[in-house]
Design goal:
single chain, about 90 residues, alpha+beta, two-stranded antiparallel ribbon, about 25% helix, about 20% strand
Length: about 90
């Protein structure tokens, strides 16, 4: 297990990641990542890995992680508070 100390710069928290950790997951400095919280874990993914997901899929991930959208976010996305994201329907071949 690798440990790192959270630092602060310009009011933001910074978490240095050792090069060997970045190498293991195929990241390098300058890469853009998406950050999600799943329970008590922070998950980093390369941003390009997320480009082909639908809005419904992304909303379902947020819902599964217990993230509540603000009323403003819901209004922007055109969804009501009681609406749940639709499941992606994929047709089976054969």
């Amino acid at each position: 297990m690798t440990q790192s100390v959270i630092a602060e710069a310009d009011g933001s928290a910074l978490l240095p990641l050792p090069p060997e950790v970045l190498e293991k997951i195929g990241l390098r400095t300058g890469d853009t990542v998406s950050i999600t919280v799943e329970g008590d874990r922070i998950v980093l993914r390369k941003a390009e890995d997320q480009q082909h997901r639908s809005l419904d899929e992304m909303l379902a991930e947020y819902e599964a992680a217990g993230v509540e959208l603000s009323d403003e976010d819901r209004e922007t996305l055109g969804i009501t508070k009681s609406a749940k994201p639709a499941k992606s329907a994929k047709k089976k071949k054969g």
